[in-house]
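Prompt: I keep going back and forth on a fold encoding question. Comparing notes only helps if you start from a blank page. Show me how you would write down a chain together with its backbone fold. Please set it down just below, with no commentary around it:
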Amino acid sequence: MKNKIYSAATIISISLSVFLTACDKNPEPAQPEAAVNYALMMTGGTYPNQTTYFLGTKNMPTGTVETATAAEFTSSGMLFKYGKYAYVTTFGAPATLRKYSFDQQGKPTEIASFIVQGLKTFGAVDFVSETEAYAASNGYGGVPKLVKFNPTTMQITGTIDLTALQKKNATQVFYLSMVHRDDQLFMGCNYQNGFSNLADSVYVAVIGRTSGQVEKLISDGRTGMIWNGGTASSFIASSLVLDENGDIYVHGTGNGDKVPSGVIRIKKGTTTFDKDYFLNLKAATGADCLGLMYYGNGKALTCRSEDANNYPFDGETPSYTYYKVDLTAKTSLGVLSKDIPPVFGSYAFTTKWDDNTVYLNVPAATSNSIYSLNTGTGSVKKEFGLSSGICNGFAKLN
């Protein structure tokens, strides 16, 4: 065996390393494993006596989710998700949006919040970046507002003047669903007189993000008023969705024999409705539909009404069925699964965080569950149930 010859510098270096290692009685502790990877929200009870439960779990839920570690709110709530944080609004003045993380025991910890006086909730929240987001506050009897805020600091950084969107014969305006593309924000507008839709048209506001001003209000009479307020960050069926090509699809509700429920389109690079595109959902599925839940490659889910007398509301029993639609081909792909019971349409939502699985809310007559859809095989299965009400938020935190 050959003898190894070390220089004096090498010997000193090795000795110093051994000495420091032996003397380090307080080594850098390993970072704790994340306590929460998933956030859940559910609301139980009947209005106005409702309780919302908000909690986190480390592992993908299975079995039945209980609420022992949940934060509780004495009203209905909505969950929004951006990055590793959850954002919560509950119904009741003043409209408040709260930002949450989770502690090592998995309990929600409020970081910061902001309020808009005179209104009761935030119907739509759209996140653009860590420093730019928009929140539409609504409430019957108040003048709705759209605020720009910094989701990192939770400071309101501006208020968009929406005077140009008002209609003199509308007693109420609700801003429902938002999506951003390039330097513009697209926001659905619902005009009402009392509690009745004012017109048989879709209305979408186009707002400049840099200018902070309304650029125009566009409308299309081939389908009816926007009804749902979901965004890419929320857990409610949307009315405006953005696909991979940069096209925006807009869902409108039906109004009896006047107009059918349908989907229209705002093509990439334009701020007008595409007159050559219309998916008549009533004709395609056999009944009017509620909401649009896009999950990629031109495919989406919608909820077909099985009770025309209640549409677009929910009755005492669930009366909507999940249907698959092909937005590109403008056709229905049929019922999602006969194994999924009828649902309450106003609570329908989907969420996904990989290319293979879509999770969907199934608020049924006697149970509340989350199911999954394998986008490759088309198979559907129940993932877990909820013990204390209807799910109104399920997110994987990045």
